[in-house]
Amino acid sequence: MSVTVENLTVRYGRLTAVDGLSVVFPPGSTGLLGPNGAGKSSLIKALLSLVTVESGTAAIFGRDVISEKKAIRQIVGYMPEDDCLIPGLTGIGMVQYAGELCGMNRRDAMQRAHEVLFMTGLEEARYRKVETYSSGMKQRIKLAQAIVHDPKLLFLDEPTSGMDPRGRQEMLDLIRTIASGGSMSIIVATHILIDVERTCERAVIMHRGTIRKQENIQDLQGRYSGTFSVRVEGDRAAFESFLKEHGCDIIPDGQHLIDVTLPEGADTDLIFTAAQRKNALLRRLVPSVQSLEDVFVKLIKEDSHADL
Asked: Which overall architecture, per CATH, does domain 3-215 show?
């Protein structure tokens, strides 16, 4: 496995950012999904020993993140969400310096810097100082410095942040190209779900410092294919009670709608039967989940409903 985490906890004072989290990231491309504040960045920083781990253990390719942090940084690339550029350095100088920090000699770091700047579309701007770069160019050079040493694992934290639509699509294409090479595992931390659909094979969904779901993206979407958004008029309580008695999961969706998840093997005939027998009039019956974003929204609703 690329990354193994067991009962990991990270706190900032009274705030618990990662709460007894356990997860496994296999080789390949994985999207680490969650709203802002879910704990995604804190988890990555803990794995890189950039924040203090209060309890629990973690390993990257079998190496302990606490006792072998120097060795880990030589095999891991990190593209942070915030700017990490050094004013006064040119693009080529910035990426070369990152390579040397990862243990490359000066000559190899320079050669590799030219290669990755060409790959990321910055070859014409490589001799410009990094503080003159646009937001999109800064994202690209952060990616370049993260892959200059050809790491085994690449962490990307909000890689399309601040980019215009064209730049965002080009960044996603780059990530997909890197992932398709097969030699580098990738973990993409983001709150933009369509980015994960376009670049990753699987998703790990975080909320409130814990893991809510981890699965292949296609399986995750298929798991909710039997969920429908329903609105009825009449005796709604009796309608819901009938569905629950027949194995359906019911989650309120606002004041008038409910999400109905049918049991395995059932179809919408069960909903029509419930309406007929309980004197309820169906006003809406549409599939509730069609995309990864729909799955994510449903999981967050389930979390909120569970707290009531």
From this structure: 3-Layer(aba) Sandwich (3.40)
